[in-house]
Amino acid sequence: MNVNEYVVVENIDQAYQLFNQNKKNQIIAGGAWLKLSVKEVNKLISLDDLSLNYIKTNDKSVEIGALTSLREVEMNDVVNEIDHGILSTAISQIMGVSIRNLATIGGSIMGRFSFSDIIPVLLVLDCQLYFHNRGEMTINEFITSKGLDRDILTYIKINKSTGQSYFKKISHTALDFSMLNVAITFDGSFRIAIGSQPGMAMLCEQTMAFLNQQNDISEDVIEQAVSIALTELKLSSNIRASKAYREVLAKTYIKRGLRQVIK
Amino acid sequence: MKIKITINEKDKIFEVEPSEYLLDVLRRNNYTSVRRGCDNTSCGVCTVLLDDKPVPSCSLLALKANGHRITTVEGIQEEAHKIGLYFGNEGADQCGYCNPSMALTVYSLKLENPKANEQEIKEYLVGNLCRCTGYVAQHEAIKKYLGDQS
Question: How far is CA A254 from CA A120, A167, A178, A233, A251, in A?
């Protein structure tokens, strides 16, 4: 990676202006994946002096500054109570503690990493993102839209839901990226997201709609839900797993997840 | 660009390039206990403490460390010696390449969770690879070390 200049901005307007001056200007959050994702940078823009490292809570929601480290999010008591701690559980399975001290929640979202274990969880939690220019949008709107990458994420908000949850990361070792990951929440209605397809994580909208119309979640209904999920998912092969294997994984773990959240 | 870092409680000023990682700057300035391994955050041998928290120095831009405290194994000599004795007693090391990063991570675990149980020890050490030992003896050594401190 080659960086021409490193700029620590004094305010968010300055950061936004610089970021949009040149397509080769980049924002740096924790920088954990910078080596893997960027080759040539004109100006690397640091937000370190903008106090974006915080976790605030009120009765209804938790607000997390974009530069809060994954480890701080993982260890936060309030985050740990949201839907049985699904976000903390997912973060705790990302490589080692040292990388989680470096990587930030904002960087993990803005990187749009298809291997992300966090994005599927934020999808089922219906997380709100707050951008400097465009304002508020859901994470689902963000990952399904194009052309939103030149804005600056300042914080995210998650409702303090207390439903049931299930998260499964399937990988060869703790240090590997997922072959597939499955996130499910249930608080009267179901939300299901699958990541590492290997493409970008997605909500299983049709499966959710089907399940949310049912009065009783029987084994037969679960089987039908899994069939719908397999038709709407975009599973394919890459170096980590074949499409056929991913189908088996999706089938197995969506079933297990649904059984767990309705217990 | 110049950065000011407090390394092992001593203030230092280094001239760095915008693309340089902390690992390169430390090794260039003779902090050679900070090892280079995978160079992509996977192995943990480059671990240093940034404001008392373990981070992979191979993936921390040097400029981001500006104004912060960095601790290498030389900064926790007494504790590292103690940890080394526990490792030695359990036969928990061979080549020693990962020892400085292991000692720093174990020290950090002690600060964060002095009563860590076996599972918590394993989870905390996930990011520190050792190609010699197979980990069983290391986990035993760490368990005994933490147990004797509390």
Answer: 13, 10, 15, 12, 6
Of A5, A44, A92, the CB nearest to B123: A92
Helix (H, G, I), strand (E, B) or coil at A203: strand
Say what the pTM is.
0.95
The answer to whether A36 contacts B40, with C-beta atoms less than 8 Å apart, is yes
Query: For the sheet containing A2-8, what is the strand order?
Result: A2-8, A40-46, A26-28
- For B108-145, write each residue's pLDDT tens digit: 999 999 999 999 999 999 999 998 888 899 999 999 99
Q: Closest Cα to residue B33, out of B92, B87, B85, B84?
A: B84
Give pLDDT tens digits for A58-117: 999 999 999 999 999 999 999 999 999 999 999 999 999 999 999 999 999 999 999 999
For residues B54 and B85, state if they share a domain.
no
Query: What's the CATH number for A55-159?
Result: 3.30.465.10
Indicate whether B64 and B96 sit together in one domain: no
The domain total for chain B is 2
Among the partner-chain residues A4, A32, A174, the one whose CB lies closest to the CB of B41 is: A32
Yes or no, beta carbons of B127 and A95 under 8 Å apart? yes
A·B CB contacts under 8 A? 75
> Which CATH number belongs to the domain containing residue B49 in this structure?
3.10.20.30
Identify whether the C-beta of residue A118 lies closer than 8 Å to the C-beta of residue A90.
Answer: yes
ipTM of the complex: 0.94
- Three-state SS string across B63-93, please? HHHCCCEEECHHHHHHHHHHHHHHHHHCCCC
Please give the residue range of the domain that contains residue B81.
76-149
Helices and strands, counts by H and E, chain A = 12, 12
Same domain? B30 vs B83: no
The number of residues in chain B equals 150
